[in-house]
Design a protein that fits this description.
This protein is mainly α and about 140 residues long. The protein contains five helices and three strands. A three-stranded antiparallel sheet has the order 2-1-3. Helix 1 runs antiparallel to helix 2. The radius of gyration is 19 Å and the shape is elongated.
Length: about 140
């Protein structure tokens, strides 16, 4: 098995493990003067898991292909990687802004709110999976080696 495929398989496994582990961690925390409210990481799975499966399918096809036919799948994986960075960051930032400026929560005495470790781990997992399919080809032995 080539180095690209070994590294890609490791990234795929790590990404899936990160998403599944994120379900066990708190996804969001809100601090009140008398308590801290935590939202379950399982609420992330309905968004993160389908996206990870689509990215994983493209990454597996990209890792399985060799030669010129791999180019298209590598580019699709790169596009999914860029989309994940932009969409994941934008959705998290928008949710954070809306949560932080919620008038009802402020009336209830909310001090602060923000993403928990489950959210960050799910985002990391969703980045590792398309990264696996976007890996460059192994350098060919030849000139300069």
């Amino acid at each position: 098995m080539s180095r690209r495929r070994r590294v890609g398989a490791a990234l795929l496994g790590a990404g899936l493990l990160a998403i599944l582990t994120a379900a066990a961690l708190p996804a969001w925390h809100t601090v009140y003067p008398d308590r801290v409210a935590l939202r379950s990481g399982r609420e992330l799975l309905w968004v993160a898991l389908p996206w990870a499966l689509v990215c994983g399918l493209v990454a597996v096809v990209s890792l399985a292909r060799v030669g010129p036919s791999r180019w298209l799948w590598r580019e699709v994986s790169r596009g999914l990687l860029i989309s994940t960075v932009l969409a994941g960051g934008a959705v998290t930032a928008a949710w954070w802004l809306l949560s932080a400026t919620d008038a009802y929560a402020r009336e209830a005495g909310m001090v602060s709110t923000g993403p928990g470790p489950g959210t960050w781990l799910a985002l990391l997992g969703c980045l590792l999976i398309p990264l696996a399919g976007a890996l460059p080809d192994d350098p060919s032995p030849g000139l300069g080696s």
